Amino acid sequence: MTEPTIREPETRTVDAPGATIRFDVRGDLGGATAEAPVLMMVGSPMEASGFTTLAGYFGDRPVVTYDPRGVGRSPRTDGASETTPQEHAEDLRRVIGALGVDRVDLFGSSGGALNGLVLVSRHPERVRTLVAHEPPVAEVLPDREQITAVCEDIYDTYHRSGMGPAMAKFIALVQFSGPLPADYPDRPAPDPAQFGLPTEDDGSRDDPLLGQNIRNGPANVFDYDALAAAPTRIVLAAGRESAAAMPGRAAFGVAERLGVEPVVFPSHHGGFMSGEFGMEGEPEAFAATLREVLSRA
User: Fold this and answer.
1) Phi/psi at 14 (nearest 5 deg)?
2) Which residues of the chain have pLDDT under 70?
């Protein structure tokens, strides 16, 4: 087994309207080449720390990670409580600009994949290859009405009852295999205790997943004409173990709309992790697949 090479990141900032975005640079940006440009790894609402292991498998090129607007070390300064995929995409553009490079390779996970697709639809010249791993969008799926209803209910549950009940519903959704049946939104709510979640409301409402991403992400509609016309090579990816769950199914749906062949990666939705946020995947195999996909550009 190959161990990842841990490089100490240099943290930098870029100012944006309403926020200060912090990003981490591993390696020498001057060492990027046309064949191996800077590799950005982005999530949403996951912070940069979720990519610690995966970044270690790309010690031969500069790697950049970041904390999305309103998460971790990237505080909002405008007092707004919700962020759209379009705002996140513009922040990604700002980070790329602050790197002083023309374009990057971009690996996006979950909401990061969604934001990466929006970025490419708006600024395709900034991304050579986009690998969008399990973007959680509903509009390409036959059960989009049920998904939208469930996501709205999770959002409402969070603001009404707190993190435990809302997160229990979220976990049940992402663990469900296949299209949601018509009666899914009417089924009894899962017990937070069965997932080890708190049953009491602590009054906080600062969770970016439950308080904003759950509503703004799945409801997003891409500009498919712009994506199809982009010079960026777009790769949709899904985990072998999670391909039947909603984000995995969405990857196949977006790939079909764009007329591209999806790629199946090892493991699951967090398959690139090795304990980050409690997720155990197959990071070495995942990194090997990502490297192979990027090498085709």
Assistant:
1) -140, 135
2) 1
pLDDT at 34: 84
Residue that is written with structure tokens 């996006």 in the block: 108
- Going by C-beta distance under 8 Å and a sequence separation of 6 or more, which residues neighbour residue 60? 36
At residue 6, the pLDDT reads 84
| Single pTM value for the model | 0.96
Q: Provide the b/e sequence for 223-240 (b: ≥16 CB within 10 Å).
A: eeeebeebebbbbbbbbe
The helix/strand/coil state of 15 is: strand
Domains belonging to the chain, first-starting first, are 10-137+220-295 (3.40.50.1820), 144-215 (no CATH)
Instruction: Say whether 24 sits in a helix, a strand or coil.
Output: strand
Which pLDDT score, from 0 to 100, does residue 1 have?
A: 64
